[in-house]
């Protein structure tokens, strides 16, 4: 029911911030993941994952789930925000997840700066061979020059 869904959301926030209960961010992550497949709960889950992305211990897992939500189209968010998520994933050696975001932003972004930066970062995968992409400098230059 809707009341239970809202209660779960606020319970997760209490566990994240240690308000009224002992702080347990892993429990909050598990609460959000329980709602993983229920389309009506993606927004609440996204907000919980956003809060948890500030916790160094579970940041990587929270960001990975956020990438999944974005690429599946479960959530609409500011392109600059999702770009920052991709950079965080990249810095955590989550190259595949970062690439998936860069690829989508390079193809679809309405923000010219984000589109350009995403295209350059996508091209960098062809230069470095990250994400098991075959090194192909011609493909990298082709992406940047289009």
UniProtKB/TrEMBL annotation:
Superkingdom: Eukaryota
Gene3D superfamilies: Tetratricopeptide repeat domain (1.25.40.10)
Protein name according to UniProt: 7654_t:CDS:1
Organism: Racocetra fulgida
């Amino acid at each position: 029911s809707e009341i239970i869904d809202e209660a779960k959301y606020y319970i997760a926030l209490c566990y994240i911030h240690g308000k009224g209960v002992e702080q347990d961010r892993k429990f909050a992550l598990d609460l959000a993941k329980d709602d993983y497949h229920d389309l009506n709960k993606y927004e609440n889950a996204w907000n919980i994952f956003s809060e948890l992305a500030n916790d160094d211990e579970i940041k990587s897992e929270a960001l990975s789930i956020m990438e999944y939500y974005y690429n599946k189209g479960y959530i609409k968010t500011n392109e600059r925000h999702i770009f920052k998520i991709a950079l965080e994933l990249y810095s955590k050696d989550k190259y595949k997840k970062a690439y998936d975001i860069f690829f989508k932003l390079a193809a679809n972004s309405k923000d010219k700066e984000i589109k350009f930066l995403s295209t350059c970062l996508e091209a960098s995968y062809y230069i470095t061979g990250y994400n098991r992409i075959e090194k192909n400098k011609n493909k990298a230059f082709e992406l940047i020059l289009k």
